[in-house]
Design brief:
The chain is mostly beta strands. Helices cover 0% and strands 54% of the residues. It contains no helices and nine strands.
């Protein structure tokens, strides 16, 4: 039997949204199983990697922290340049091997 993957939903920032330079942008991530079932989160079982690609093509990593009250991962970024950014997030369930990734683009003016 093959394992399904993880489905990642980037709740914030919103694809195509415009933000102001040097202002905090919230990042919020929800993870479910591919079948739509919620996952049973144990902080030690998940590895979440998150980074942005700046308009100059530079990779900047940042941390997301699990919020057990909302069952989401939260973080923030503060862009210093104007232009198009790409946000990439990967998640791996270290216990089952399930994984998923998602990306969105947003703009800083």
């Amino acid at each position: 039997m093959a394992l399904g993957g993880l489905s990642l939903q980037i709740l914030k920032p919103i694809e195509g949204e415009r933000y102001s330079a040097k202002k905090e942008i919230p990042v919020e991530l929800s993870i479910t199983l591919d079948c739509g079932c919620p996952t049973c989160f144990k902080k030690v079982n998940f590895k979440v990697e998150s980074y942005i690609i700046t308009p100059k093509g530079e990779k900047e990593e940042f941390n997301l922290h699990f919020n057990p009250n909302l069952s989401v991962f939260n973080g923030k970024i503060i862009p210093s340049q104007k232009g198009q950014y790409s946000l990439y997030i990967r998640a791996i369930d270290l216990e089952s091997g399930r994984a998923g990734e998602k990306n969105v683009r947003f703009y800083v003016t």
